[in-house]
What does this fold into?
Amino acid sequence: MIAATNRDLGAAVQEGRFREDLYYRLNVFPIEVPPLRQRGVDVILLASSFAARAAKRMGRPVEPPGAADSALLRAYPWPGNVRELQNVIERAVITSTDGRLHLDRYLPVLASDVPPDDLGARGSGIRTVQDLERLERASILAALAAAAGRVSGKQGAAEQLGTKPSTLRSRMKALGIERP
It folds into this structure.
């Protein structure tokens, strides 16, 4: 018998919300799978696999996620785990027109942000301070993800963003961003 849950059954037993005898029957060989947000490069591997599978099923040629898409995939926290990733990739495959996924259009991490290439979003290209802050936050998160959490050093987030590490740390603190 294989059973899966996203709950902490040990804590539920301690609190009296789960039967202890059932817990010990199920807990013979526990396998803990970390959430997607903690699996780093696995996100990109899964996204590539989902994209290839969806593209084949729909008869569409699609490239695997590029560097920018990979950074976005790793920056997003994936509260819906693998199912959410699969849905985002499938949506990107369905709407791809040039063989690229364009994940920046579909990742919820940018849903409330004004896309960087959409300067006319407000008609005149004017952005509010909140828009700029969301863009800066998304850019910093993507750079940190691409740099595997490194702020400074060769190919660190600061170098990718073209700023000093001390400036980046200051902006991260101001925006409430912690390194992954």
User: Anything to note?
Assistant: Helices lie at 9-14, 20-26, 42-58, 67-75, 81-95, 129-146, 157-161, 165-175.
